[in-house]
Specification:
Distance between the termini: 36 Å
Strand content: 25-35%
Low-confidence stretches: none
Protein name: YlzJ-like family protein
Organism: Tumebacillus amylolyticus
Structural class: alpha+beta
Length: 72
């Protein structure tokens, strides 16, 4: 990673090692992705990142990061 900033790195990365995420890897309709399960709506999750090697998956608006998918 390369970062250019006038702010000292101690301030930029402060608390980063203490951050935990509740992300899971799953496959939805044949597309592998990283999803954050929703606490408000069980069985759904918010897409964080696609792990699929197919370019057409990245062009599908339904699989954009931030979109909600069914996990069941």
């Amino acid at each position: 990673m390369l970062m250019w900033s006038t702010v000292p790195e101690e301030f930029v990365f402060e608390g980063m090692e203490n951050t935990t995420y509740n992300w899971i890897e799953t496959e939805v309709q044949g597309v592998k992705m990283v999803v954050e399960p929703s606490s408000e709506k069980p069985g759904t999750g918010r897409i964080i990142r696609l792990l699929c090697p197919k370019p057409e998956s990245y062009l599908n608006p339904a699989y954009q990061p931030g979109m909600t998918v069914n996990l069941i």
